[in-house]
Predict the structure.
Amino acid sequence: MATGRAHWGSRLGFVMAAAGSAVGLGNLWKFPYITWENNGGAFVVVYLAAVFVLGLPIMIAEILVGRRAQLSAVPAFETLAGGGRRGRAWSTVGWVGVLAGGVILSYYMVIAGWSLWSFHKCLVWSFTGYDAASLGFDGFLKDGVLQVILTAAFSLMTAGIVMRGIGGGIERATRIMMPVLVAIMLYLVATALTMDGRDEALAKLFVPHFSELPPQGVLLAVGQAFFSLSLGLGAMIAYGSYISKQESIVRSALWVVVLDTGFALLAAVAMFTIIFSVPGLQDRVSGSTVGMLFITLPDLFYTRMPGGAVLAPLFFVLVAFAALSSTISLGEVVTSLMIDRRGWSRRKAAAICSSVVFAGSVLAALSVGAVAPLSQVEVFAGKPGLLSTLDHLAANYLLPLGGLGTTVFVGWFLGRPALLEELGLKRGTISFHLLLWILRVVAPLAILALLTAVLAGWDFS
Ligand code: TRP
């Protein structure tokens, strides 16, 4: 099986595909709103620390496992651990990942569906004129039928692509659309920075006041780092298995991390500036923090930006596309396992996995306002509703747990020769010792400490 495995076509192949998986709603929707909820500055500092101290080494570890084994997560752990009992035990890390993938997919589809709605709204505004009052985001969240329809539409698109195999289509399209998205994003930020709220926004984002960081913010920052970088569930193991031996894992990982983080920061700068510049927007956003992406940007497009009427619908198409390249990578993790393990055909695997996930999506779609019991469940304090509950569970518990398994495995069980060979580093170099020290000690202890603190019920509220 290991021989003849396909590899990314070009040097940039992996970086592009991995960045496509990483850049998604995590950057555009989630990062700005949780940064807002956690009062900016200090949260951003903790997030950046989490990205570079935990995220980068764990991304290196995941890619390394994939390339070494030339297999996706579950069989990769099994093989590298030497098969048998030990192999089965380690493959649990892969299974937790598949579970996390299914959970994330089920609510990610709902938010992704919102981009289709925003696209439609913008199209109407572009022709009939912008009317801020007609956004009606709260009413939209409560409209259960509409929520389920949008979610179903997005689930069908994802299933259709996964069913055909990811193949050339999505990658080729991503390669064209991502740069366009970056260009529009830069234009958005540049335009936003001419608004009056700029100084206030930059201060809020980049001047840390640690007394304003809720203690739980540390957990959220770490969880967000895993989520945004697509870590902790084996996605990077699968992608890493297609990296050629000539490519530098460290350099590739660094690129993905920098691109993903840059994207998140740009999105936050644009949204914060708009919030501080447009009167009344702060209340609208605070009333529904989960919708920041969909509430703030239309104001900028239609009231400030030359060409905004054309760019607004285009922007939301690209958001949908960024989300699609992420749902596909998640869907592939779940589907490919069923193909490998159960011997199902790709069609069957994709259809069954998508249906199971969709059942969860329907519940999540109804949990943002339509059905009271679903919208009010509060397992984690301050995170009411099934959608937020699933998000909190996956991002802040399952992903760090998967990351913990990976870093312990690579740090302690894989063996130095394998590590040195894959990384192309020499024994005794500072970078190798630093990385090994992080993988063996710093990352496991940090994740363990965090999870125990939370589970032991440190008062985080
Ligand atoms: N990183 C993506 C985002 O920010 C979501 C995502 C895609 C993901 N694949 C993943 C998250 C694998 C965790 C693991 O939107």
